[in-house]
Amino acid sequence: MKEELRKLVGDNEKILYEGKPDKKCFIFESIFNPLLPFAVIWAIIDFAVIGVTFMSKGALEIMPFIIPFMLIHMMPVWMYLGGVLLTFRKYKNTEYIVTDHAIYASGGVFTKTFNTKPFAELSHVNLHRGIFDQMFNVGDIITTTNQITNVRGGAAISINSISNYIEVYNLVKKLQKDIYSDVMYPNDKRPAENHGYNTEYKG
Questions:
Q1: What is the pLDDT of residues 17-75, one digit of tens each?
Q2: Which residues pair with residue 105 across a beta bridge?
Q3: What is the DSSP string of 147-194?
Q4: Are 76 and 39 in contact, with CB atoms under 8 Å apart?
Q5: What angle do CA 43, 48, 54 make, to 5 degrees?
Q6: Distance between alpha carbon 134 and the CA centroid of its chain, in Å?
Q7: Burial of 109 per CB tally in 10 Å (0-12, 13-18, 19+)
Q8: Helix (H) or strand (E) holding 66
Q9: Nearest Cα to 122, choosing from 104, 143, 99?
């Protein structure tokens, strides 16, 4: 997977960081996701209905119908369990690369997804540390663009659950500031009294 992601990096780009999420944090976040309470409550209710049905009169007659129905009705539980069981495959496919031009990220379970965001398009860089991030001493770097989407204020790309989050955050923030400033205010197209934003990033 890492070799596939590297193939997306341009010949004129320099790789400054590459890595994966912290495995323990990745697994814990997959297990204790927002669907867990819903799946537990759903399972308790369904198993209670099955138990009451077993103890009722005429249970044997309706069992051939109630069991297939309950198996289908418990679909949210199977979806949650399936997501947890596929965590290791998702972890295997998750990689990050930061170059002096862009951020590259790969992911997916059955299909592989490769995302790229040039620093020239990024408008904000944020650091996020959830409960499990703090527990495992990792952090998430979340970047957004000015592009409007139906989901958020801007299309985002994230580097999640990495151990050296401070260093990568500072690196991404500096690259975003330097390159975004050069795009907005090109060195050669500014007032004479302003000599431009001095950066070493070209191209």
A1: 999 999 999 988 888 877 778 788 877 877 777 777 767 766 666 667 777 777 777 78
A2: 96, 115
A3: ---SSSSS-EEEEEEETTHHHHHHHHHHHHHHHHHHHHS-GGGS-TT-
A4: yes
A5: 125
A6: 17
A7: middle
A8: helix 59-73
A9: 143
Strand ranges for 34-145 from DSSP E: 95-99, 102-107, 113-118, 122-128, 139-145
Distance CA 10, CA 7 (A): 8
Both tokens of 107, joined, read: 């992911």
Find out whether 143 and 103 touch, Cβ atoms under 8 Å: yes
Residue 197's pLDDT band, with cuts at 50, 70 and 90, is: low
State whether residue 94 is helix, strand or coil: coil
- 120 Cβ neighbours under 8 A, 6+ residues apart: 179, 180, 183
- Eight-state DSSP code of residue 93: T
Contacts of 125 (CB under 8 A, 6+ apart): 141, 142, 143, 169, 172, 173, 176
- Give strand pairing partners of 142: 126, 158
Q: Helices 35-55 and 75-85, interaxial angle, to 10°?
A: 130
Pick 185 or 81 by higher pLDDT: 81
C-alpha span between 151 and 157 (Å, rounded) = 13
**Could you tell me the pTM of the whole model?**
0.71
Q: What secondary structure, in 3-state letters, does 26-39 show?
A: HHHHHHCCCHHHHH
**173 CB-side CA count, 13 A:** 10
